Amino acid sequence: MSFNGFKSLIINYLPLILVLILASILRLIWLNNVPPAVGGDELTYLITAKSILLSGSDITGKWNPLSVFLFNFPPGQGQAELLYFILIPFVAKFSLFWSRFPNAFFGVLVVYLIYLITSKFFGAKAGIVAALVSAVNPWFIYISRTTYEMPVATFFYLLSLYFLITLKGKKILFTIPVLLLAFYSYIATKAVFVPFVFTAVIYSYFLVNKKKYRKEYLSIVIFSVLLFIFYFVSIIVHPGTSRIGDLFTPNNPAVTNQVNFLRHMSISNFLTDVLVNKYTVFFTVLLVKAFNIFSTGYLFINGDKFFSIYNQGVFYYPDAIFLILGLIFVFLKNRKVFFLLFSLILFSIIPQLIYTASTDVFTPHNTLMFPFFIIFIGVGIYETVNYFKNRNYFYASSIIISLIYLFFIVNFLNIYFYQFPLRGNFDFPVRIASKYAELSSKNSKVFVYTERKEDVFNKFLFYSNSLNKNTYLTVRNNIANKYYGIGNIRFEDCNNSINPLKNNNVIIYDDNCGGLKRNGFHLSISSLSDGGENYEIFNDAICSKFYLNPYPMGITISDFSIENMNVRKFCQTFVNSR
Q1: Could you give the 3-state DSSP secondary structure of residue 239?
Q2: What is the pTM of this model?
């Protein structure tokens, strides 16, 4: 390639390169600090991946990792199959950055796939806009900075869709291994798998390749159906750690209870049995679930309990306008693509509809909905700007839309990086308690009293990087014997009868246990947002020699690199004197 050709290539792809750089920055910056801790499901993946790396098995030593692809999960676990193996190269030494790096990487690839799919349907310029929307989307930024399954699942489902709408001939069969990885990437999206494949295959066979390559498309359909049947039979025969008991059906006890309540509260009449029965109640709940998923409050204002960003929806306010415009523009310009994307959106909410009787939205279950929303939003922005043929109007509208989005993006980033970490999400107090216990255990015995000792112990193993080749067998044996401890540190159930002032051991007492509140001096690990006690510390030997604040103050983002702090800095930042 000549220099001019290379220069032309760079210029043509420069907008996409800049979008991917932006996406990378938003997913990687301060990744070791925000979110400031790991959640329970994240920890399950990390501990099991590290155990596989050290021993070829899970922490129990009784499970063959390859059997997970036969839907045989580690004891007590029911997570997606693929993520264990993706994480293995990144857990040699536990750290928040490296545990999250794979998802950040897949998050950037999702942005690229949204560009490719949108470009295929609506042209490269619309693809750039959609990619930019996905690069700065609150949900995509949030989930790509965790160790949950959703970015991986979103990537493989989108990649399979892109293969189906672009490949020809025998190459279409390359979709099969991608679909296999998609199926193993997230348990919730297994419910979407067959309708997703059917819809994409029907579109590609009839509308893209004009009824060509029937054998290849039929092979994909047969493979997908057989894979799902195999999975379904496996969880029926061996329910074990599967979540089949969480499925929402007309026979769910919550439905029965609601039917009984409504009939009890109704005056007897001939319509009662017709209008109030388990099927009418069941479908009413399904409708409520669907309306909640598509509600403006959830999508653009508040999010849900999982997407716990204060005053922020999974999309920005202006996205609502451009989503509506995008739906209109796509419907008018290409109804076939409209029905494809709209159908995929409807199928993507199946996991939410069939999971438990609760009508509360759980964002991870809707993870496949967001890319298609973003494609509509991207087309809505692109077509709105290009609607004005006059160049002055074109530039004016582009600048106005950019400034509006810039305001909301900066506001979200301010909330996410400067407010969200202070709220203690992902069980951040356990990270502080783990660091304190690790420091104290060098010279003293440490007892941590908590109502969930196994979970807190596992988090300690992660934060202190105490699960390694030297300790693995000890940790495994201790867990097998339900002894949650290592070295000088032991994790115990709540015990309000102990008197910490009558022994010399360091005691860290979870305030969820009710608190000891003994007379006498004690230190505290406090909530960063309101100063309330999370843990009481008795018989301290490391922090009381320093001046300590009565409550947390002056916290900066760099302070969340807790593991790199010296003792003085750690104590003065996160331990308080009461």
Answers
A1: coil
A2: 0.94
